[in-house]
Amino acid sequence: MKEPIRTTTAVASAPYTPGIRANGWVFVSGQVPVDPATGTIVEGEFEDRVRQCIRNVEAVLRAAGLELSDVVKTTVFLTDMSAFGRMNAVYGEYWGDVKPARSCVQVAALPLGVDVEIEAIAVARQ
Predict the structure, then answer these.
(1) The domain containing residue 51 runs over which residues?
(2) Residue 53's CB: how many other CB atoms inside 10 A?
(3) How many domains does the chain have?
(4) pTM score
(5) pLDDT digits (tens, 9 = 90+) for 74-104
(6) 3-state secondary structure the chain
(7) Which of 51, 55, 92, 63 has the alpha carbon at shortest distance from 4?
(8) At 112, which CATH number?
């Protein structure tokens, strides 16, 4: 059985559900650096956009009653792999000693012309 997870604090820019709970897992759709308060892409430094992606992932998790510590796997999409180190520095701010498994891939383009997107898989609490 699938249960959609919706939140007003993480903006979906296309016809999809921000998260799905299924069989003990929560799957968080890729989150781009859109500020839910304004509906616009975060301007400024790349690091600010990474932080917004993670905050958007966190908002979906909170709507499911979870936290970042429940995440077991993330995938980070970058349009420029030379930003990998900068992304890592920010990413490390959000998880403690036990960080989730992660893949990071470079892609040709991302929705809305952004330069970073992050999706996550979490273990749902029973």
Answers:
(1) 2-123
(2) 29
(3) 1
(4) 0.94
(5) 999 999 999 999 999 999 999 989 999 999 9
(6) CEEEECCCCCCCCCCCCCEEEECCEEEEEEECCEECCCCEECCCCHHHHHHHHHHHHHHHHHHCCCCHHHEEEEEEEECCHHHHHHHHHHHCCCCCCCCCEEEEEECCCCHHHCCEEEEEEEECCC
(7) 63
(8) 3.30.1330.40
